[in-house]
Amino acid sequence: xxxxxxxxxxQPELFFMPxxxxxxVVGIPTMGRRHVLSAALPQIARQTRIPDEVVICAxxxxxxxxxxxxxxxxxxxxxxxxxxxxxQRNGIIDATxxxxxxxxxxxDFLMEPSYLARVEQLFIMHPxxxxxxxxxxxxxxxxxxxxxxxxxxxxxxxxxxxxxxxDVQPIYNAYGCNMAVRMSAVRRGDLRFxxxxxxYGWLEDVDFSRMASAHGxxxxxxxxxxIHLGIKVARSSGMRLGYSQVANPIYLMRKGTMNVRHxxxxxxxxxxxxxVRAWRPEPWVDRRGRLKGNLRAIGDLLRGRLAxxxxxxx
Length: 314
Hints:
With about 325 residues, the protein is α/β, with parallel strands linked by helices. The protein has helices spanning about 1-10, 35-45, 85-95, 115-125, 150-155, 185-190, 205-210, 240-255, 260-275, 285-300, and strands at about 25-30, 55-60, 75-80, 100-105, 110, 130-140, 170, 180, 215-230. Strands 1, 2, 3, 4, 5, 6, 7, 8 and 9 form a 9-stranded mixed beta sheet that branches. It is globular.
């Protein structure tokens, strides 16, 4: 209770956020997945709490089909950026200076219809929360991927969501595919996604969450639910991802936003999986490319050349 009183004195604006004045924005970075984005946007229209705006940050005009925007019950704004998920997320932050909440979604994440309403309620009820992430009911990234139609059917067959009470749990980091951010914490801490993590930005959600934890709680909420389709189109090459699986944890460990235990776990788990499965890889995973990237990063580490930005040259 004392920490809430102290927060109220330092940041009174957090405790006076009437529901009818909350500006909630959905931010979507995208690249090379026009058809996925076009299919996912109408799903946002099913929300019981319609976003005040959807801001898309794309890399090329061909990434976005604007022909269906007029049929959506919310305004859509399209930004252009150079490639890089961190750079694109920062573009969304810069373009939404008056927002109260930004819900960052991957372009292939489908929300359960009460998702945004529950985010808004959560942030009003708990003014000390800086970042919240939901429960992924199915994650296509772990398999061949899930179609938009199948993802929508999975959401329709969901279990009872329950209430917000007793459902909020602390978590080390949010999952970048669905990450709600209190923008007053972002502005207060001058928080940014680290653009030294280029391209796909492996572990940028961990880095951002740990920086945000200095300005509020980072939590997960079981009744915030959705499906991560895990569409394989336009993802990083196996070798680049494999390099990032080693380079990025070490970079974040040196930076201080990832502890040694988590960094080692990430590297050992991925290196072991790539080594074991390289000879009989899953059809949807370039295990040999990832293993080659792992080994290239380890070599650069031994030579003192390791840096996340090296993936641009692979």
